[in-house]
Every structure is written in C-alpha cells, then in structure tokens.
Amino acid sequence: MFDLPLPIHPTAYARGVPPHFPSDDVDHSHPFALTLSRRAPAELMSGQAAPLVLARFATLAEAMQGAIDHAERIAPDAAPQLLAILDRDERLVLAGAASDHAVAWCHPVTSTVEARGVVTEASQLRAQVGRATAWGEPDLAQRLRYRADLLEARLVDPLWRAFAARALQVAA
C-alpha cells in the first residue's frame, strides 16, 4: 500500500539502519506500523522497495507519537522523509512529511471524488517530472516528484478516512 515513489534523500542515519526504537518492546501483533519508504536504486530494481517498518504500535495515537519521535532525530538540514502509518493489512491510515523535529500530517481525502482529483493532479505532476528530467532540470523534477508524493499521501484507505481526519483534529 505504501509504494509511493519518493525522491532519494540522504537520511539522518546509515542506510538500512533505522533510528533507535525500543526493539525489545516490539510486539508484532500490534496493528499499526510506522514505516519509511526505501527508495535506493538497488532496492527498486531488485523488487525489495517495500517500506521499512520503524516500529509497531497498539494505537494510532502511539504511532503518531512514534513519528514525532522519529522526526526529532532527523538532522535539521536533512531533506524531509515521508512516513506512513499502515494497519495490519497494510492499508494506509495516515502519512506525513517528517523533518526538523516535526511531522506535517497530510489530511486524508474525504471522498472518492476528491481522491480522483488527487490522483489526476499527482499524475499531471509526474508527467511534468518526466519533462523536467528530459530538459535536464533534476532539481525541478525532484520538487515536482515530492509534491506528487505529498498529494498521494492523502490517499488514505476509505476505511480509515474519517478516523484519520478525526485523529488529526484531536491532535491539533
């Protein structure tokens, strides 16, 4: 479910080594997984670009707090990282951009019509990415790709849309 194409950014930790979360407390039966996309070219080509599970949590509130804890460990000059919270069936519950000690949560779409609009806009941005790349504008392509990623992060599974929207209201 979390196969959003992301720009390849340096991370605040060594590639493949997640930031410290208490590993002895991990209960794989917990329903919410905080994930980070792995987008290294070798992983993409090998088909191993599945999201990296940073930690599992019993509640959505705990998972959101885990995302904030992760953001606090990101270097101030590092590029934002798109985090996603998935349920046990790997459906997108909530996503946000983590950087510089904070997480900017993406508000979920509220309807199928809005979801179609987001998909259309993200597709148009991805087409512009291709043109920018062909024109030799890698910085523009990277910015457009990131905007498309943020739009697609709003495509929360219909089962979770209202719940995630309410969780964001409570958190605010």
Description:
The chain is α+β, with helices and mostly antiparallel strands and 172 residues long. The chain folds into two domains: 125 residues, no CATH class; 47 residues. Helix 3 runs antiparallel to helix 4. 40% of the residues lie in helices and 17% in strands. The N terminus is likely disordered. Strands 2-1-3-4-5 form a five-stranded antiparallel β-sheet. It contains five helices and five strands; from the N terminus they run βαβαβββααα.
Descriptive labels:
2 domains; 172 residues; globular; alpha+beta; 5 helices; disordered N terminus
Would you summarize the structure shown here?
With 172 residues, the protein is of the alpha+beta class. The protein folds into 2 domains: 1-108 and 156-172, no CATH class; 109-155. It is built from 5 helices and 5 strands; from the N terminus they run βαβαβββααα.
